[in-house]
Amino acid sequence: MYRLLYPMRTFLIVSGTEEHTNVMTADWVTILSARPFFVGVAISPKRYTWKLIRDHREFVVAVPRDSQVKDVWIAGTKSGKDVKKTEILSLKFIPSKKVKTPSIENALANLECKLIDMRDYGDHTLFVGEVIAYAYDESAFPNGIPNLNAGFLMHNAWNEFFRLAAEKKYMMEE
Ligand SMILES: Cc1cc2nc3c(=O)[nH]c(=O)nc-3n(C[C@H](O)[C@H](O)[C@H](O)COP(=O)(O)O)c2cc1C
Hints:
The protein is mainly β. The chain has a domain at 7-32 and 46-55 and 66-117 and 149-167: Electron Transport, Fmn-binding Protein, Chain A (Pnp Oxidase, Chain A), CATH 2.30.110. 13% of the residues lie in helices and 40% in strands. It has helices spanning 48-56, 69-77, 85-88, and strands spanning 8-9, 11-16, 21-26, 29-33, 38-43, 58-63, 93-94, 103-104, 109-121, 124-136, 153-157, 160-163. A 7-stranded antiparallel sheet has the order 3-2-6-9-10-5-4. Strands 1-11-12 form a 3-stranded antiparallel sheet, with no helix packed on it. A hairpin with a 2-residue loop joins β11 (153-157) and β12 (160-163). It is globular, with a radius of gyration of 16 Å. Flavin mononucleotide is lined by residues 10, 22, 24-28, 42-44, 47-49, 76-81, 124, 155.
């Protein structure tokens, strides 16, 4: 019943190189350390992405906009084993700053990761990446704080997504 931890944000994981790029959707993404900045992504060994990250030892975590939801769905339901997803998605890929794996144009953010560890937990593998470079849309993160109206994409159930809307905001006294 992992759905008890939903709704969650959803992300795009880019793997491979400029010549051979793949992208899959992933909800199970987390921050593991602030300094150094480590992120973890739980990826099933069934995914083509699993093999590409293991082989190339780098990946990009892209933060999609809700306007990219159709591509998020395709990236999450088709496998790079069967189709060249870069040819069927409307997403455009751009060179990253420090890794060979491309970033996604017009995403809210792209986090470039070097693989530092991979470890199996049950039916998924936790890929741990050190974020060695990043780029983001300044209007989505003014002063480094998320703009809640930027179009953050949330995932609720299998084919059900929604755009984050700050219906009620709580500001705590420090
Ligand atoms: C919204 C959504 C979230 C997903 N989250 C994950 C995830 O966190 N980990 C994972 O291994 N697969 C996840 N998947 C499944 C993969 O994205 C899917 O199997 C994809 O086709 C794998 O592509 P690939 O074989 O090209 O790597 C998710 C799918 C969707 C639609």
